[in-house]
Amino acid sequence: MRKLVSFMHISLDGFVGGLNGELDWITHGGEIFDYAQDRTSQSDTALYGRATYQIMQDYWPTAADAPDASKHDIEHAKWYAKVKKVILSRTWQGREIPNTTIISNSLAENINAVKNQEGKEIVIFGSPGATHSLMLQDLIDEYWFFVNPIILGKGITLFRGNEERINLRLIKTRAFSSGVVCLHYERKK
Asked: Residue 175 belongs to what domain range?
């Protein structure tokens, strides 16, 4: 069975977005991009919530074509173009998008069907609502939390207090020169 791996930027106080979903507080750049790209290359399926998918779809198909495209933009745009995509959305039920599966119901059954397909890992970027739904059904195998050196005070939280206990085992930590720390955990079985 393939693993489902969550990548999430998070503030020191546990928020994944500002009150209006703003992400201007996230520290990123070459060092973090290279680290994440190494991991992303181990996956061939990207899972998104509908809103995050729309953001990705607005940017990545043409990102490499920009005259000032960075190395990361070029590499990630190539990866994005070829990966299978899975979108969690109740409102897009019945839509057809090339190289894309839309899951609108029976979350555990449908995610496990995707995990049982041949292929590499499945990665979910951000998508706090989708990630929370997956957490509630214990479908995420690994968490990569990129803890940013900021206290937001309020905003969108990933942990809403209605989760069952999920026991994790720390696999690796990585501190970046920006002050971001990546905490890589796997679910204890």
From this structure: 4-187
